[in-house]
Amino acid sequence: MFKLIVLLSVALVVSGQTKPPSKFKEIPIVSLENIQEVDGKFRYSYEGGDGTRASQDGQQIFVNNNAGTATQGQYTYQGDDGKTYTVSYIADENGYRASADHLPTPPPVPAPIARALAFLATLPPQRENQRKF
User: Fold this and answer.
1) For position 8, what pLDDT does the model report?
2) In what order do the strands lie in the sheet with 84-92?
3) Contacts of range 57-61, beta carbons closer than 8 Å, 24 or more positions apart
4) What is the C-alpha separation between 38 and 118, in angstroms, rounded?
5) What is the pTM of this model?
6) 102 with 85: CB under 8 angstroms?
7) Beta carbons of 42 and 35 less than 8 angstroms apart
8) Per-position b or e across 46-84, b if 16+ CB within 10 A of its CB
9) How much is the mean pLDDT over the chain?
């Protein structure tokens, strides 16, 4: 029994020393900046050995007495097709808004709907208890 325990222990130690194969290639970080200021502002950026880059500036904000973060930045990467893509973004109390040449854009609002929306915007607001139909 003692020999079996020793044999199993040796097998576990030996198997723990080998690194399992990975389908991901290790990419070194070639530059890194991470700055946190006392007033809540921050900035970070990095670049990977494969050309991937990202940078972001942000600060703490308060909206309706709720703390949050407002940021803007961009990231660049190489797609599977070999092309380099860059995405710029803003994230704040109005949500996350990304822009890039390769991102899809919504179709324009049809003219009759745009006119209807413009007309509805001119109407006075309805009271809470007023019937809406």
Assistant:
1) 55
2) 29-36, 42-48, 53-63, 66-78, 84-92, 95-99
3) 61/92, 61/93
4) 45
5) 0.61
6) yes
7) yes
8) bbeeeebbeebebeeeeeeeeeeeebebbbbeeeeeeee
9) 85
